[in-house]
Amino acid sequence: xxxxxxxxxxxxxxxxLRDAEPSLQLHGSDDPxxxxxxxxxxxxxxxxxxxxxxxxxxxxxxxxxxxTWAGITPLLADDLPRDYRLSRAVGVFGQAMAEYVLTxxxxxxxxxxxxxxxxxxxxxxxxxxxxxxGRRALIVGAGDIGQAVARVLAxxxxxxxxxxxxxxxxxxxxxxxxxxxLERLAAQADYLINLLPNTPDTGDLxxxxxxxxxxxxxxxxxxxxxxxxxxxxxxxxxxxxxLAAAVIDVCREEPPAPDHPFWRAPNLLLTGHTAAPTPPTAxxxxxxxxxxxxxxxxxxxxxxxxxxxY
Length: 310
Prior knowledge:
CATH architecture of the largest domain: 3-Layer(aba) Sandwich
Order of helices and strands: EHEHEHEEHHEHEEHEHEHEEH
Radius of gyration: 21 Å
Number of domains: 2
CATH topology of the largest domain: Rossmann fold
Distance between the termini: 27 Å
Organism: Pseudomonas kuykendallii
CATH class of the largest domain: Alpha Beta
Keywords: NAD, Oxidoreductase
Domain D-isomer specific 2-hydroxyacid dehydrogenase NAD-binding: 103-275
Helix content: 25-40%
InterPro entries: D-isomer_DH_NAD-bd (IPR006140), NAD(P)-bd_dom_sf (IPR036291)
Shape: elongated
Largest sheet: 7 strands, parallel
Strand order of the largest sheet: 8-7-6-9-10-11-12
Protein name: Phosphoglycerate dehydrogenase
């Protein structure tokens, strides 16, 4: 079977897959012209959606595409075909995302950035820091990544609540409710953490009304999708002190335009879409698992429902 690997780390993926599945004929690149030349001869593709979307737009038709991203937005454009199997990366980002969230919760409570700024001014900072114990976190997007984040946060004594597509009991959350309960649970949250994918139902969720529901001085983290946030409302909530701080990994436009207010908003940190990079070893394992499922005509892990958008 010919496999097209479209990713900046295509050589690394090729090494991992060649050892595990010698029968694969591997063709990899991150050069658009080279990928366009190879695509039509490869029935299976593995790679980054932004590199794969132009191949579909150019007329190549795979049987199955395995995304190396959790998000597959570039492949959902209205002008692209949907007559193939598509699976997104699942089960590979939990550890990295949990480390990201924990980093900035601790940095917030220990006042790391403001202490560094005061040091630069030659000022001795004697403020008493806070801890995580007893804080209340709402994780919006309690899927496999959100659950991994919750498992890492739970030992610190954080009260965990979640939002998912369907209300259900999930350890270690005290409650997991549907999206219709977002405002109610946000009113109890010291930390509001967005991990939702980009779908027709998740746009502009975080607006002035929702930020006003949060306890004054809450922290907002967005490591889901930029389209979920009304940018001007977030900046206004920071300026008014309704939010103590925001950590923003994803934006509507990346990078934001030079005149975007995010660059100058008070207590807003941009982390450049680096929260959870794809780990090639774990991604290769997922691909091989799904390859066996594809050959057996079984449902794929992370198989995308085009109608739902994930």
